[in-house]
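The step that takes the researchers longest sounds almost clerical: writing a folded protein down as plain text. The outcome of that step, for a single protein, is printed below.
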Amino acid sequence: MPPTLWCYGTALAMVGSRLPTTSLRRRSPQPRGGPEPQETHCTRPLNTESRTLWRAPWEPWSVVSSSGTSTKAKVSRLEKGREYIVRVRAENKIGIGAGLESPPTVAKHMFNPPGPPGLPEDWSKSYADICWTKPTRDGGSPILGYVVEAQKTGTAQWDRINKDLIKMCAYRVPGLIEGMEYKIRIRATNKVGDSEPRELPQTILAKDILVPPEVVVDVACRDSLTVRAGQIISLITRVKGRPDPEITWTKDARALSRDKRTEINNNYPLCELVINEAVRSDYGKYAIIAKNSSGQAQATIIVNVLDTPGACQNIKVAYVTKNSCMVSWENPEDNGGTEITQYIIESRQPSQRGWTVVSNDCTKRLIKAPLTEGCEYFFRVSAENKIGAGPPTETKTPVLAIKIKLDGTLVVKAGDSIPIEATVKGKPQPDVKWTKDESTEEIRKGPRLQIETGADFSKLPIQSSGCAPVRQPVCPDHQRCVKD
């Protein structure tokens, strides 16, 4: 059977029964009565004229392969558009058999140019934004890109617009002259060449088309966005409008501008605000405002930046005794964007550098702290949320646990004054209250009783009653009574 032929660029392949000798020639018309073809052992086809030049001499055969038992052979360095005939002859130890020739075959690419692109869509102004769809067929080779051509109305010349191939199915045609009409067409390109063009069904008039702005927030940050401190805030929106709107970003009604951490990227239709290394103060209400000559539109996004809480406020120490005190405080102005879960209370003595934890799971803003009599203490408190603990707030002055020194027994003679005095130390200055026996009722000043309290003492002098000695009939025990 005749061999089968395929064309691979400039290569020709064939299949026969056995191919110990494969020959090739370019075909030209044979003059009547001319000589038989001769076989020439060459490694590539000879250069000859095409078959259209019928007066050309008969071409000799060029040997492609003369050894091996494969039934396939690859013929290289063919010239595109030339016609070739392949002859195959089998050989054994007796000799070479009769030849089997292929039909004349024209060398060409195995691929075809792609089909035309899908119908483009357009809108117009001083430039034209066009988009189209991929061809329904690629010609057997991948699409490498697209070529856009423009023609001014009233002329026959088509000018190529793009220098490099367009990789996407969209392009902005620049440089249109206002008031001029244009025709636009697109070609698809593969490695074989360009496709047939696909033309816009109508001409483009270079003039502004006014479209009011429209702003759509990306779903990733729609309505609100929450990030942690140190992360990136990325607010992405899609803005439409003709002409391209002027974009303004604001935070809490104040306009934003580019700085070391802030980037504003307007690549229509995408408009993005990027804030790097977010800090707690970046939280707030952000707005994008798009404005052009035909209107205005805006969208808002609430941004929350999670961080540790701020410092607690107004720490106070009260009700100091010799073995305890009450520590209180107020919440921080900023909770870090999330609720406070607990408080950490610590204390230390002035001579110490390290802090001792009093409580690390307190949920109220008040705690009773233990003290050692006569010792001084500083206190500090910090708020904690799910991000971590905030900075501590310390007491400015130390607290001194009250120390009281009072003689247990005092002996006086009847009629003498009773000088009761106690040494009292404490910071802040303690309030002193005198009581008698097991009563909780406070002893108050009177005609015979005066109370004097200083920075580190308190006196309770009881004056003599001034009574004369009592006679035996009246008082058999001859004793004086000392009241109070």
